[in-house]
């Protein structure tokens, strides 16, 4: 089988695509992949690291206001469609899958015009603009939240969950601990601001670091690649930060997730799929800078079930974050209750479900 996958911009769209690729590889030895992304999204680096052949197109997003940039976006879209068609005529895929982000628009649209079977995967409860556009043309729409169903043609929709949920299961926690030099006999908090890092979370963590000394747990703090140098300059000014492990990005997240006890993060849908598949408790700080505030809806779905605590960005500060971390990590009963609630929300067999749907359209 030959498969083209496209999804990009941020990790939340890329890692599900790679998780699906891994699931296909697990089930079939005779399969070839091509990933189509952009040169400037995170996919270029992440997909190449995963050893998947990568080709790129140029694309940009629509501005909400009337603007001449939108004309350029339309021109880029059609250029992207014709380049994608060229790639497809060379590669001859049996199926094309889009996992979100602007780049999927021209790629998946081109496939539908060439009558290649297509599927899109929507991670969020509130769909993105690209997937809403593509839904009219594709054969199947895979969703992760029941709430997303109403935005798509009902006969095409199937609830699969996020394949990244399956990928993070059964990982070696010891390997995760070793990769970061973590102690085995201490609880661990992992703090990160989605795949690109988050300025507001970084500011709160910097306020919190001096208050963390002598706590009976260890902290791994991921700044996001683009914020790392700036954060480290601030860290140098602190009296002591040796009790916090600071990284720009984590490339072996499945292993690391297996070795931690509590997550502090944004409320991106792919992270939440991972967290609930593993039954991890979390403190969620939804990004207010996303379409229709969809991260807050994601976070609410989890916190209403008592699997997470939510802090809105405007209320966030170091002291409040520390209070919440202590409240969960220093109370074993609360930790166990939140973990159980989190596990109840997970869809651990999502990769199998999505793979089944893919076979169905590919074999038509
Ligand atoms: C600003 C923005 O548009 N955010 C969107 C984006 O978020 P974002 O890309 O931040 O997505 P998520 O939080 O859902 O997923 C992040 C992914 O990156 C991985 N990771 C993260 C940090 C790290 O150091 N290493 C690492 O591997 C996580 O394990 C996860 O697999 O896509 C999500 C899924 O469609 C949406 O819900 C978010 O609203």
Automatic annotation (TrEMBL):
Compartments where located: Cell membrane
Class of this enzyme: transferase
Catalytic activity, EC: 2.4.1.227
Domain Glycosyl transferase family 28 C-terminal stretches: 188-353
CDD domains found in the cross-reference section: GT28_MurG
Predominant cellular place of this UniProt entry's protein: membrane
Boundaries of every Glycosyltransferase family 28 N-terminal domain copy: 3-143
Positions with a binding annotation for UDP-N-acetyl-alpha-D-glucosamine: 10-12, 124, 195, 250, 295
Pathway: Cell wall biogenesis; peptidoglycan biosynthesis
Catalyzed reaction equations: di-trans,octa-cis-undecaprenyl diphospho-N-acetyl-alpha-D-muramoyl-L-alanyl-D-glutamyl-meso-2,6-diaminopimeloyl-D-alanyl-D-alanine + UDP-N-acetyl-alpha-D-glucosamine = di-trans,octa-cis-undecaprenyl diphospho-[N-acetyl-alpha-D-glucosaminyl-(1->4)]-N-acetyl-alpha-D-muramoyl-L-alanyl-D-glutamyl-meso-2,6-diaminopimeloyl-D-alanyl-D-alanine + UDP + H(+)
SUPFAM superfamilies to which the protein is assigned, alphabetical: UDP-Glycosyltransferase/glycogen phosphorylase
One annotated GO molecular function: glycosyltransferase activity
Keywords: Cell cycle, Cell division, Cell membrane, Cell shape, Cell wall biogenesis/degradation, Glycosyltransferase, Membrane, Peptidoglycan synthesis, Transferase
Topology versus the membrane: Peripheral membrane protein
HAMAP family, per database record: MurG
Membership in a protein family: Belongs to the glycosyltransferase 28 family. MurG subfamily.
Function statement: Cell wall formation. Catalyzes the transfer of a GlcNAc subunit on undecaprenyl-pyrophosphoryl-MurNAc-pentapeptide (lipid intermediate I) to form undecaprenyl-pyrophosphoryl-MurNAc-(pentapeptide)GlcNAc (lipid intermediate II).
Name of this chain's protein: UDP-N-acetylglucosamine--N-acetylmuramyl-(pentapeptide) pyrophosphoryl-undecaprenol N-acetylglucosamine transferase
Source organism: Metabacillus niabensis
Gene assigned in the entry: murG
